[in-house]
Amino acid sequence: MLGDSFAEGHGVARADRLSDLLEARTGIEHLNFGTSGSFGTVQQWLYYQEYASKYDHSDVVILILPANDFDDNDINKWSRKIYRPYLRETDSGYEVYYPVTFDDRDTSTRSTMAVIKNTIENNVYLLNAIRWGLHVYKKKTTGGKPLITIDDTPTYSDYSADDMAMMKHALGEIARIAADRNVYLVTVPTERDATAAQESGYSFPLVDELGEFADGIDNVEYIDLLPSFLSYMHENNISYDEFTLGCNRHWGALGNKVASDVVFEALYKD
Question: Crossing angle of helices 161-178/41-50, nearest 10°?
Fold first, then answer.
């Protein structure tokens, strides 16, 4: 399993992670290579190529989070002093490059005040309680919507043609390295995507593009989690927020459980 913090299981007990739920259900070992911290599809490709692919495995599951995976591949969203890989166009397609050499990378550390602030926020439970109380208050006083909406554009629509081309290239390389193994592309929606689908219908260019991309490669299958999440919300009369940790957008136990049911049906349907 490849992906970012959603694949890694940020914020939940190990037993509640998507990969561990599948392992417990099937008795088949699931190797989780999910990596938190702005880890996009280009990095996932290189990680699979240089490390994860060396392990004995039968299938590859890639969790794609449109909310930030496109940004993770975009050098314009990051300092050029950070040593991390990006893609750039060449006459023959794309090549991997780093904006700075490893020796010249930014090695600066956080200021003393920043460290103190972070330590206080992480250890003073009262502050976390206040933060959570404000979150609940905002949800109740605004009908489940934040007081200030910065951007309500669905993440399934918020990308450029170049963004998609680079993502497809990285995913295609993973499929090539996987050889005769099955590769499952799984998109992870956010509340913005669920809201858009409820208000305007389930119609997103990202779903169409990734679906067509997968159809063009023999060993690739595309799965979008959003329809199953929407169905669960409708059947159980809950909001999308119930899938998350509440204090942030990462999946809680329920989100991982619903996702595991979908992935199980895809991987083990035969």
Answer: 20
